[in-house]
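name: query_chain
kind: protein
chains: 1
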Amino acid sequence: MAVRYEVMSKKILIGILVSVLLVTSCVERQEESPSPHSTDRQPAEAATTTLAPEGELRDYFPVGINTKWVYNIEIGEVEPFYYVEKVWLFGDKGFSYSSRGRFLPLLEENALKTFMLEIRVKKPAGKQGPFLGEGVELEIEKDELGIFADAKQVFWSMTRYGRFMSYEVVTYSPEIPGAPTGPMGMRPTEDGHSKRLIFFNEKPGTSIGIGEKPRDTLLFVGVDTEVPGYEGTTLLHFLRTVEPAENPETQSLLDKGFTEDTWFMRRKGLVLLNQKIDGKTSMVWTLVQFSK
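structure:
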């Protein structure tokens, strides 16, 4: 499995392949909670109507055991990168920080431009990392680019409190390179974790993030029937927005923000993802095989 080059923000010094100065903040242990807010940021080309009835939502986010997705990932005109917010616990306290990273296969000379990602629903999971409730554990069968390179376990966590919402929950071993240390070199007492919203039921134009001032938000654009390659097919269109780094000391690639358009198809789930940086395509995921 590929590994990644990672730069983190907010208050801690750690090394991941290369030593990087990071800043993290010490926080009380608490559950993340979604913060919905309205926005008018809707791509002009997208067709927007109301979301499918609650009873049909499961069809757009299938989670049956052994359901499998195979994606072809094409690198665009600019280099893609990732953003994740991790929490590591030390007893009843922990370090929370955001990470921006590059995919190491793209740093190689004459790097490939096409990669495969294969994901399968492994089994039901009533506990997803530190979270309890409905969910499934995923098996990452192939990950050539390193999307989940340092993950210990990957889950989808579902909740129905007021609206249907699906999260990607990833856990990380305290033994991985880059895991923070506390006083006197103390290692985290539990696995680290991240939690990100990937799908929800709400009216078009609603954007949701985790925390009071989220820097990673997901907008429901609406129902789209004009996606190239899927013309005439009803797809649910979401737009993830990651804000640029706060007060960056440099003007590197990792200081930039990015967007990810995602489209979900009935009975197949995610069929297309398009990441853009400064309006330029950085990577595109295309579903090339689906089975259940």
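note: Residues 57-60 form the longest helix (4 residues).
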